[in-house]
Design goal:
alpha+beta, Aldehyde Oxidoreductase, domain 4, 7-stranded mixed sheet, globular, binds dioxothiomolybdenum(VI) ion
Length: about 750
């Protein structure tokens, strides 16, 4: 708990907190529908090849069996083959795996059949009894080996500013390679879909999604339905971290099955299926070269990266991007390539691209600081710039220097020794490290309906969902500030595609995008109240709207707040129960404001490394964010805590292990895929600059979901180096790797 800005008795609460902790909040799989059938995936046990035969005789003889859906009996799906459905208008090709469309196996664990039964237990049994024979083909899953073969790589993007490889001409330079394994999101709530065809051309879907509207569109286009005939409900989402940014095989499978058997169908993934069916952070290799002059001025940055994708889709992310723009440097070149493997497709995972790239960038900068005998913070401050180096646009706001200063103070940076391995506490080496994170701060379009009821309550509506960040809480705070109303008079409704179109919750943009819509709707509600006051309250008939103010549910004279009428009285005089507005807030194109827009973070850690065993213990974490105005201090703090915990996992424990002789994930359970245990999480201080960004939007707020993790793993690696003199560049940093590393 950061005593500097949050008190333990903070009266703030999450608006959905009570429902969530008492179990009242309903998640996707918890919605009961009459006559529901349960679907369980049968997944391939080979990695590549074709399904020769599926025998369902035994399965269909099991009690409760309804059907087994697979490629041979799968109905034709418009979005699988749009050209075969020329008469359907709203069709587009399904992105990603077209489950049950053919007999091809593309990765180990691919769904090849859906067992449908009366109960979840019987569906599990039916799935087990499905007999599949395969014809196997040779496959490739070994990233470390295959990335060295240029013929296997797909060209991605290249960039050069000034001279390429200029770092090699600098008096001081560092060159290093970094490896990060596949990491998985694994939110608490499994991905789930309930599909119910209310009639032949209208569909009701309960789905775990970060975007009810984007899911609605994707599913409508899969079946050639009008968007409004697909209703997507995602009232509560139990975590996602990016895995629910797109629809995976469970969605079409449930929808196709529900149509085929004419019943609602529920498909819930199992925990092991969560490892291969809903994306992951791709495996990556990076090579960094950074050079500087003796005063610490950067003279060249070269950043090359390869990450894996699947054979059936290209997934790219901005791994090398921050190296192009974050620090002052005239000579920068980057190159990014993809390596297709016989695995499922990766996707965005918290801090996509930058979490990977900033690990390598921030470790290499740390290395170079030691080489220059400079303090790593002083080195970064030396190369600080207010001009985004790639676009050459000034940042809309950048207060990252405040983060260096405050974070250094809170972690006790003054106790750090520049010479590695100089601090010891009994058998433990002690070290301090820091790392910087950056992520784009965008603002998209959102539409919000604001309703003012005659009893004084204000309800705001938008079709977003919240994967847990606390969106409704933040939006209530935006509305309370705009309307000068107590928070308990305001309710935010979401999680239903029938509501006005809201953004997908992703890329750290929800507060900025939706907050702008909420702010605009509230301004419009106040304007409407002033109009109504002039029309319906005689004393205000001749008053200019500029001389009126709306606050605490009253419209009054700015100059004399005793002259007032209650909002409820105005609505009553209109003889209605409520009045409402619908407002669309436009997206922001940074070019229009001639500014670069980003959020920044600086993470600090103090580690102990055992001198005999190599065990790493984090003793203290300070995480600081520069993300504009902080709308909701409690939930923003929680975001930073979660990012730090994710960063600890990335740094020390998380790794998907694949057996390259079978292509199978070996540790697809939470028992064997290690996330940080509670006793690995130290005291975490959270601090924000909390300065409004004057350009990003009317509320001054930028996103912080991604910056919470970006740069964190580097801070840990840098602290381990400071403690031991050993540079660990391959994640996760295990004690075995520490013992094996040379100082
Ligand atoms: Mo975030 S990776 O855009 O959910």
């Amino acid at each position: 708990m950061n005593q500097t800005i949050f008190s333990i008795n903070n009266p703030d609460e999450r608006v959905d907190g009570l429902e969530k902790v008492t179990g009242k909040a309903k998640y996707t799989a918890e919605h009961p529908l009459p006559n529901m059938a349960y679907g369980v995936f049968v997944c391939s046990t080979i990695t590549k090849g074709i399904v020769k035969n599926i025998s369902t005789d035994k399965a269909m003889a099991a009690p409760g069996a309804i059907d087994v859906l697979h490629f041979e009996n799968c109905p034709k799906v418009p979005g699988y083959q749009p050209s075969a459905f020329p008469d359907l208008k709203n069709v587009s090709e399904w992105r990603g795996l077209k489950v049950f469309a053919d007999n091809k196996v593309r990765f180990n664990g691919q769904p090849i059949a859906l067992a449908l039964a009366e109960t979840i237990e019987s569906a599990n049994e039916v799935a087990k009894l499905v007999e599949v024979s395969y014809q196997e083909e040779s496959f490739e899953t070994d990233f470390d080996k295959l990335r060295k073969d240029p013929a296997k790589l797909k060209t991605g993007s290249s960039y050069t500013r000034g001279k390429s490889q200029a770092y090699k001409e600098a008096p001081f330079y560092v060159e290093a390679e970094y490896n990060i394994p596949i990491e998985v999101h694994n939110p608490m709530e499994m991905h789930a879909t309930i599909a119910y065809w209310e009639n032949a051309d209208s569909l009701l879907l309960y789905d775990k999604t970060q975007g009810p509207k984007s899911t609605q569109m994707a599913v409508a286009r899969l079946f050639g339905l009008t968007d409004k005939n697909v209703r997507v409900i995602a009232e509560n989402v139990g975590g996602a971290y990016g895995s629910a940014l797109r629809s995976w095989a469970n969605v079409p499978a449930a929808v196709i099955a529900a149509k085929k058997i004419q019943r609602p169908v529920k498909v819930v993934l199992t925990r092991p299926q969560m490892f291969s069916l809903v994306g992951y952070r791709p495996q990556s290799w990076q090579k960094l070269g950074i050079g500087a002059d003796a005063n610490g001025n950067l003279m060249g940055i070269s950043h090359y990266a390869i990450s894996n994708t699947s054979r059936y889709e290209d997934f790219r992310e901005g791994i090398v991007d921050a190296s192009r723009f974050l620090y002052k440097c005239d000579h920068v070149d980057t190159d990014y390539k993809l390596l297709p493997l016989d695995l499922s497709t990766p996707t965005w995972m918290r801090g996509p691209g930058e979490a990977t790239g900033c690990f390598a960038l921030e470790c290499t900068l740390d290395d170079l600081a030691y080489k220059l005998k400079m303090d790593p913070i002083a080195f970064r401050v030396k190369n600080f710039t207010e001009i985004q180096q790639e676009s050459k646009l000034p940042w809309s706001a950048i207060n990252v220097k405040d983060c260096y200063e405050k974070g250094a103070e809170l972690i006790g940076w003054k106790n750090r020794k520049q010479q590695p391995k100089s601090l010891k506490d009994k058998d433990w080496y002690v070290g301090y490290g820091m790392g910087v994170g950056v992520f784009g701060a965008g603002r998209g379009t959102s539409t919000v309906r604001g309703i003012w009821h005659k009893d004084g309550r204000v309800v705001l509506e938008s079709a977003v969902s919240d994967m847990g960040a606390g969106t409704a809480t933040a939006m209530v705070k935006v509305a309370a500030a705009a309307l000068s109303l107590p928070e308990d008079k305001i309710k935010f409704m979401m999680g239903d595609s029938d509501l006005p179109p809201g953004p997908t919750q992703g890329g750290s943009t929800t507060t900025s995008t939706l907050g702008s819509g909420v702010h605009l709707a509230c301004e419009a509600l106040k304007d409407l109240m002033k109009d109504m006051a002039k029309e319906l309250h005689p004393p205000f008939k001749e008053t200019s709207k500029d001389d009126l103010i709306v606050e605490n549910s009253r419209v009054s004279l700015k100059s004399n707040k005793e002259v007032a009428i209650a909002v409820g009285d105005l609505i009553n005089k209109k003889k209605v129960d409520f009045v409402d507005v619908v407002k669309t807030s436009p997206g922001l194109n940074p070019r229009d404001i001639q500014k670069a827009t980003n959020s920044f973070s600086v993470h600090f850690v103090k580690v102990y490394v055992h001198s005999k065993t190599g065990e790493v213990q984090l003793k203290h974490v300070v995480t600081t964010g520069d993300a504009g105005k902080i709308i909701s201090p409690q939930t923003a703090r929680s975001q930073m805590l979660g990012g730090a915990v994710g960063g600890i996992g990335m740094a020390l424990t998380e790794e998907v292990k694949i057996d390259h002789s079978t292509g199978k994930i070996q540790n697809a359970t939470l028992g064997s895929y290690q996330v940080p245990r509670h006793n690995m999480i130290p005291h975490i201080d959270v601090w924000f600059t909390d300065k409004p960004d004057p350009y990003i939007n009317a509320i001054g707020a930028k996103g912080l979901g991604e910056i919470a993790i970006i740069g964190f793993a580097a801070a840990v690696s840098n602290a381990v180096f400071n403690a031991t003199g050993k540079r660990l560049r391959d994640l996760p940093i295990t004690k075995e790797k520490i013992l094996a590393a040379k100082a």
